[in-house]
Amino acid sequence: MSSIVVFGEVQNGLLNQASAEAVTAALSVRESGTEIVGALIGSSIPVGVFSTAGIDRLLIADDAQVTEYTCEAFVSAAAEIAKKAGAKLIIIPHTSNALEWAPRLAARLNAALVTNCTSLERENGALLATKPVAGGAVQAQYAISSELKVVTLSAGAFVPAEKGAAAPVEQVSLGIINNPVEVLETISEVAGDGPSLRNAKVVVSG
After folding, report:
1. How far apart are CA 192 and CA 199, in angstroms?
2. Is the pTM here over 0.85, yes or no?
3. Residue stretches of the chain with pLDDT short of 50
4. How far is the C-alpha of 128 from the C-alpha of 121, rounded, in Å?
């Protein structure tokens, strides 16, 4: 069975809202006989926050090698997940990390890639992906007909998926990742008390 794989992102034990939005995008272009597979990469992952996001099953790469984000490790883990899921379409929230690892994942899998999409739809068997270009002055639409597709989804482009029953969870085993990068120290960003600009639909500045 083919699948649409939706990569989620968990921050401080909470599911990034863009992850639930990506599930909605997957449901909107789902074809008959296609399952929606959620995916999480990390260590000691709280799977419950994503297993109830309206997906059919959840694959996790819970491994000490991906405790801290590094591009090579995430690409290796994501490739293993895509292979196990039989992915035909991979949807990734357009975060700062994904901006780095999603193109490398597409290259490794020999897949077509469209980033920062604001709309996804099906037409005559092709996937249509819309994204802003020319500094947002123009909306460009791409028809993707390749066997495997990777898209990153702009935050706020879709409403978050409604919660459902908990999906079954499966562990994906990773081999030894040849990672040339080692994280020596992580400095956490101090969040303010105000609303998150990342999740805001409209920002007004003076």
Report:
1. 14
2. yes
3. none
4. 5
